[in-house]
Amino acid sequence: MQTEVTLDIIVRSTEIDVNGHVNNAKYLEYFEWGREEWYEVNGLHYEVFTQLGIQTVTVNININYRKECKQGDRLTIKTTPERMGRTSYALKQELFNQDGDLCADGLVTSVTMDLETRKSKEAPAALRKLFL
Predict the structure, then answer these.
(1) Cα first-last separation, the chain
(2) Domain holding 122: CATH number?
(3) Number of domains observed in the structure of the chain
(4) pLDDT score at 1
(5) Model pTM score
(6) How confident is the model at residue 78, as a pLDDT?
(7) Residue-range definition of the domain harbouring residue 28
(8) What count of Cα atoms within 13 Å lies in the side-chain half-sphere of residue 11?
């Protein structure tokens, strides 16, 4: 079990907007990559959730853009558990550049949903234990 997980990436030319820096929508994608890494490292693969009869859905994302990122920057996405409710949970995410500067941070709230009923369902123990 690893509650804090990091993922290193490099900014590509296709992620740059007309202002010469990373387009704001790409930060959502970077954070999604970070969350997927967090699930994988902690053994919560898609198949595991399917076996538990659930899936997770993102219901809210708040991002603070702190410093621009440019093509060729080496970025680290850090994902840590923030809070756990009955069916919802939040992951804190931070994006640092190669100099250690905080470029963006955010809080992503997700809900565990029953595969069949498509209604919220209590988060399983396998997920809950990561928030202790």
Answers:
(1) 11
(2) 3.10.129.10
(3) 1
(4) 62
(5) 0.94
(6) 98
(7) 5-131
(8) 24
